[in-house]
Structures are given as C-alpha cells and as structure tokens.
Amino acid sequence: MVGPTASDPPPTMAVKIFSAGVAACVADVIAFPLDTAKVRLQVIQGERQTSSALRYNGILGTITTLAKTEGPMKLYSGLPAASLGSKVSAGLTTGGVAVFIGQPTEVMKVRLQAQSHLHGPKPRYTGTYNAYRITATTEGWTGLWKGTTLNLTRNVIINCTELVTHDLMKEALVKNQLLADDVPCHFVPAVIARFCATVLSSPVDMVKTTFVNSPPGQYTSVPNCATTMLTKEGPSAFFKGFVPSFLRLGSWHVIMFVCFEQLKRELMKSTQTMDCAT
Q1: What Rg value do the Cα atoms of the chain yield, rounded?
Q2: Which top-level group of life is the source organism from (predicted)?
C-alpha cells in the first residue's frame, strides 16, 4: 500500500465526507457477520437452550451454522436497519444526539440478528420495516428507544477508552523508540485500544443486547436485567460474544480507515487529473 507523498493534493471537505461514508459502508458489509455472530452468541446462549448451545460453537462455528441452517443472508440480517439510520445520524450529529436518533435502528438490528428460524415455525419479524411496525404497535413508540441509556454508556466507554489507550500507547512507543511514527506504530496501539475498549464495554453491551431483545415485561428495569443475568448465569454472562465483539470492532476500524485513506487519495488524484484536462 502506497503512503501519502508531498505531491498528493490535500483532500477537500467534500472528499473527506464522501470517503468516510463509503468506507464505513464497506467496513459494515465485511465486518457485519461478526456482529451477527456476537449477538447470536449473546442472546441464544443466554436462553440456555441445549440445542442452541450445541449448535453454536465459537465464532467460525456460529457463522458457518447460521449460513448452513438459515442461509448466508442471515449473516446480514439487520444490516439495512443499521446502515439506513445510524450512519446518517452519526454523520449529521455527534455524541448523545446521534445515539438518541439512531437508537431505533440499533433496537431493530439486534432483534433481527437475534431471531432464529430454528426456535419456531415463524420468525419474530419478516424484515426491517415489519420490525419497526410491530415494535411501535405492540410496545409503543418508547419501545423503539429501548436501552438508549445502555447504548449511550457503551459508546462513551468505547470512545473514551480507545482515545486514552491509543494516545498513551503511541506516545510510549515513540518516546521509547520502539517504533517509528508510521503505519505499524498506528496499528499496534489501535489493536490494544480496541481490546481494552471491548473488555470494559462487554458487560454493558451484553446487558444492552439482552434488555433490548427481551419481550415487554420480562425485566422491570435495566438493573433488574443485569441482576437476573448475574444470578442465573454468573459473572461470565457479561462477557458472552467477547471474541467476535473484539474482532468486529477491530476489523471494522482497520477496514474503515484503510478504505478511507485510499479513497481520499484516489478521489483527489482524479479531481486533479480532470482539472488539468480542462
């Protein structure tokens, strides 16, 4: 991969926004099966159904079994919901506002990923818009924003942990002359930061997935959901799906930033070529 040179034109704001949007979509398409595997391991195993526990064995086992028993497209169940709303809201807003606007898409994504054709004759929802309609009808509009506080907490933990860990690790590597300030020096701290973020956010992520996917009335509150999980399954319940969560988080960022940098460079070169031609 060729790095930037002094002759490369600086990217415009429009090129940055377009490149970031395309790169995020590419990363979603590639990494989404890991997210589906994470949710399925969290939810299905949490239901303590013996057949499911035997059926899903590890990351590759979960992905392979889903593709064989429910079809390859099941790995992308919930992708339209995730891409349609969350990317737009995240691009237009920041922080808590983005989480609040995008929460309905998160709820639909989790529920579509978690539902299994193996647990009954009919799936819970037939598609993204059907999921929105049924949720709004049976649970009211508040059902679309179920687990908003948990999702906000998870995002805060991930963002703060990644930023602090990445900066500290990069500074230590450069200061102690272990690595030069180039691609390897950017990659190593990024992986460590993703791991730390996954460790700290996993309990909140697990409670979020369980609470969001639960039918009305199963849990009286978020603390009740967490307490029930701890009582029934022990502390390990909060770290189900840890490996696919880490791989998904790490791979998404790597793919996204690699595509982002390459798209920016190629678009600016194309723009420069067209300017010269005219």
Answers
A1: 21
A2: Eukaryota
